[in-house]
Amino acid sequence: MNISSKFSSWLCLIALMLSGHALANDRLFFALTNNGQTQHWTLSEMIDKADMNIITKTPWTEGLVTFRGVSSRHLLALVDKPKADIKVTALNDYWAVIPYEDIVKYNPIFAVMQNEQVMSIRNKGPVWVIYPLSQHNELNNEVLHSRMVWQVASIELQP
Known about the structure:
The protein is an alpha+beta fold. The protein has a 5-stranded mixed β-sheet with strand order 2-1-10-5-6. The longest helix has 17 residues. It is built from 5 helices and 10 strands. Keywords: Signal.
């Protein structure tokens, strides 16, 4: 992550903490890097691009939860990248790589809404990687759970 992206992510975090809730939809963003070029997407853009719901249980929520967001396949199509692993970095610099094989088989989403509500940082937002855990029992393991990054600040498409 370059210094500008990291600085932007921290500004976003500070503003969210001061406001106590999500910022106006046109100001909240994360960085998407593809072939060395970085784009900043607002929350409004993420909501507009959202193409998929996943209804699932997670180790961090109670009962079935409906998540809405941009599917990983749709994300790749939006940036004209037919095949890539996706490195996802959180506001606290934790990161994980979503392998292309997961994208093909499970199509995880970059969720911006939980039960029809925009997610705040307090609730693992503004963006949380969600896999369809309830539809695939084999996904309930620590390795896969480690890929479910929350408080996403940046996404980097890798060759």
